[in-house]
Amino acid sequence: MPDRIAALYQRHAHAFDAARRRSFLERPWLERFARALPVGGNILDLGCGGGEPIARFLCDRGFHMTGVDIAPSMIQLARTRFFRHRWVESDMRSFAADAATFDGVIAWSSLFHLDAAAQQRMIPRIAAWLKPGGIAMFNAGPERGVRIGEFEGEALYHASLSPAEYRAAFASCGLAELAYRAEDPQCGGVTVWLVARL
Question: What start-end ranges are recorded for coiled-coil regions in this protein (predicted)?
């Protein structure tokens, strides 16, 4: 599944990037995320795409970005735009970073491209990358299941755990829930989680 998703984003990198540059519905959540971080903090962006609009918002506020994306064309766009930051072509499941490296981790419109079992394995990895007190934010579906979306006429896989399963995963690896909003109408109907490492 990740290989097909990577190929889709690689084929349609510029169309996806153009669409993202036209829409920033997640800005209120990004503002909340940024307020919880130390000035000049280090942020890991899993599924960073071309860096628009999320990385630009965070770079403009003085944060230091490490972006990870599986699609080479996306990483090239981010490197061109934000050359002072670190951009890594990698599957988030195999990306390697030292423990307690980041003040914040964001996985916006990316974690949900993994199946439920892979998401269960990713949550402890995200927790391990966070410094004590660090913040993570991601979006998911409102309930357990698989949904097939569409982009540029091609099928696009999405999966989600149930809220109870996410909460159990957080508890198992020392993450505390700060905020949860199911199908936020102010954010295009996406479901958002904000958690902190204890």
Answer: none
Answer for the pair 67, 51: CB distance below 8 angstroms, yes or no. yes
Helix axes 2-11, 72-81, angle to 10 degrees: 50
Structural domains in the chain (count): 1
Which residue segment(s) compose the domain that 91 sits in? Answer: 2-197
Q: Is the pLDDT of residue 10 over 90?
A: no
Instruction: Check which CATH number belongs to the domain holding 81 and give it.
Output: 3.40.50.150
For the segment 163-175, the average pLDDT, to the nearest whole number, is: 98
Other beta carbons within 10 angstroms of residue 186's beta carbon come to 12
Beta-bridge partners for 139? 192
Q: How do 145-151 and 154-160 pair as beta strands? A: antiparallel
